[in-house]
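Q: I'm writing a short methods note and want an example of a predicted protein-small molecule complex. Could you take the sequence and the SMILES for adenosine-5'-triphosphate and return the bound structure as tokens? Please keep the output block clean; save any remarks for afterwards.
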Amino acid sequence: MSTQQETHGFQTEVAQLLKLVTHSLYSNKEIFLRELVSNAADAADKLRYKALSDADLYEGDGELRVRLSFDKDAGTLTIADNGIGMTRDEVIEHLGTIAKSGTAEFFANLSGDAAKDSQLIGQFGVGFYSAFIVADKVTVRSRAAGQGADAGVQWESAGEGDYTVANIDKAGRGTEIILHLRDDEKEFLDEWRLKQIVSKYSDHISIPVEMWQEGEPEREQDGETIPATEGQWQAANKATALWTLSKSEISEEEYKEFYKHVAHDWEDPLLWSHNKVEGKQEYTSLLYIPAKAPFDMWNRDNKHGLKLYVQRVFIMDEAEQFLPQYLRFVKGLVDSNDLPLNVSREILQDSKVTQSLRTALTKRVLGMLDKMGRNNEEKYQQFWSQFGNVLKEGPAEDFANKEAIAKLLRFASTHNDSNVENVSLAAYIERMKEGQDKIYYIVADSYAAAKNSPHLELLKKKGIEVLLLSERIDEWLMNHLTEFDGKSLVSVTRGDLGLDDLSDEEMAEQEKQAEEHKPLLERVQEVLGDKIKEVKVSQRLTDSPACIVTDEQDMSSQMIKLMQAAGQEVPEVKPIFELNLNHPLVAKLEQEQDNQRFAQWAGLLLSQATLAERGSLNDPSEFVAQLNSLWLELSK
Ligand SMILES: Nc1ncnc2c1ncn2[C@@H]1O[C@H](COP(=O)(O)OP(=O)(O)OP(=O)(O)O)[C@@H](O)[C@H]1O
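A: Understood, no commentary inside the block.
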């Protein structure tokens, strides 16, 4: 009997997701079973955890399992678990809305192209809603552990705009999902097909997935009487938690499938590392690097972290204490023998065990990435393109591992004529010119702006490599990374390039030039006044007439932009104005007798240099006016 039936509309995002699920996921439709069995296993894990402090929740039935059954006549497939179950409110919340933040933006970005969107949707994770790949109606009957039989709830939907919920009686705790299969999906009403899917995808989840085995009547075989057997539920999977096995017992396929279960991802992982550690600390970790970044990796409240088990009992999901933020893309689990079973998030936070696990797991991840970087460049590039920018948060967050993180960084560089970020600091050092003791880089708004920056001119001419950085995070990164392997990292847009050792003769020549052209420098300083900090003969230009650079102690242009974008106040920073004395425009400037025109030329050069460096001017109309008035003068 059902009462209090209500009809609810799906949250817009769920309706969009359902449309996509039914239209784009046909090619791999059997995974619906993995998703539903995975949810059942999670529900069992949650009950086991809650029952640690309240054994009554088991209601006398502590054998947690999920059962598959089908009815050929009715065309239904049922997945029934005796896990934690759901209350009416939970059913409405979990099966009618998507709680992940950033969901609306995610849907706004879909293209409408089924093939592309199905890739994206895999990153998003459709979970329960994958039921609608094969079913045109889904009935969920659930009852939360610890409640009376009359606290059951039934949810039903055809996967279009709405669903119904009603109160029902349900004697057994847990959740039953009844799929009313579409006419062309009846292949799933088959014992062998189901067994095959279960062993392919769900062999190593922690609970048995059972199917009904019919009994056999007594029979004669080779003159012997074989007694009758009774029908019984039998596990179709191995049901041993994968990470408790030794590595040699686990196949690649099994690692990959297990990943999809823990990470709720649809794609194979890129890399994993499985380790049992004994001794002072005892734990097992199974850490995966996904192939693709999740849709919400840059969302501030993105949920991440490992699954935590204590002595093989599931304790919590998304335990973010075990890895630093800059490794938030790592998925997997840690199973500790040293933490208490009743550990809470608060206790975890302050625990020494957590601290040492975090240190060890961080090292492990950095180690596995380093190894991939050395052994498989192609795979590493795939990793870098997805997670490189997250890793760049590392040097600021994790001082102790700065050098190890720096080894993992990859940059675009003048060495390669391409924007691909594949140059490591170690590779740069190997190619350093004789006498060069610094690593040069530039941070600009785009790859093109970096590559074509006038600040690179002399270095290019001398064949000195410069790393070309153009991601938003790069300035932040370089602020925290001042040295690698004993070599300092130097921005070509700041202070001195420190090329002294490279070119004694040129340095002497420059000093001589500065002396000879002192009057010019003084005149420029006078007309530009407090717009600049200082005017100098440039060390770095060959083709451009002038550039601006930032004093060593001042905040760089990129940092100023970052802070402004974040709405923060920034101090005024005056540039050092550098002139290329070998440039004809500068020679012309020097010869200009008319003071007013001299001031206009100098102002124009400064505006141009500022534009090239910062991409914008404080007073663009002044620049336009300068340009126009000079044109007029010249065309007289
Ligand atoms: N068998 C079940 N027993 C109890 N709760 C369930 C069950 N199936 C689903 N749920 C609840 O519904 C929620 C939504 O499930 P769904 O599969 O859509 O997403 P998910 O498992 O949280 O994550 P993902 O979308 O990444 O798969 C779950 O988080 C859980 O709270």
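A: Remarks, as requested: Residues 3-212 form a domain with the Heat Shock Protein 90 fold (CATH 3.30.565.10). The chain has 23 helices and 24 strands.
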